[in-house]
Amino acid sequence: MLPFETPNLLLFALAFILGLTIDAFYDTPGLHATACVLLAFVRVLFISITVQKEGFDNEPEPTLSLMGFRWFFTYAFVLTFFHHFFLFNLEVFRFSEIQYTLIRVVLSSIFTVFLMLISGLLFLKSRERK
Questions:
Q1: FRET partner for 8 with CA separation of 20 to 30 A, picked from 1, 25, 41, 50?
Q2: Could you give the dihedral angle defined by the CA atoms of residues 4, 104, 36 and 111, in that order, rounded to the nearest 10 degrees?
Q3: In angstroms, how far is CA 35 from the centroid of its own chain?
Q4: What is the DSSP letter of 96?
């Protein structure tokens, strides 16, 4: 949800710090930090591809109310899927568990995007009331 103008260096630093903070609480050294930095990289690629093509140059941040449902859903699902896929594959680190891992990735991604959409709609409603 960071603004589009966030410098890449700051974005990667924030992603790394957030990942290390999660790693500290879950006792997973470097697992979440790696997944968060990958998420920041995919975010940069996704925004550079879609924002210029869709013509959203004036919008300051990627929110549901500003960007619309279709773009926000695609944005949220692609980034969430990449993050979960990388995180769960690093966690298991075996090809013998690939079916179980893929099921976890898909279900976790669907649930996470659902929660993101619900929270986006809640904030959308509160902005429209004002």
A1: 25
A2: 40
A3: 10
A4: G
Q: What is the dihedral of CA 88, 94, 100, 105, to 10 degrees?
A: 20
Which residue type sits at 78?
V
> What backbone torsions phi and psi does residue 51 show, to the nearest 5 degrees?
-65, -40
Residue 14 is predicted with a pLDDT of 97
Measured from the Cβ of residue 25, the count of other Cβ atoms closer than 10 Å reads 8
d(CA 57, CA 52): 7
Tokens of 28: 């997973």
Cα angle value 96/99/100 (rounded, 5°) = 95
- Provide the angle, in degrees to the nearest 10, between the axes of the packed helices 69-92 and 31-54: 150
Model's pTM, two decimal places?
Answer: 0.86
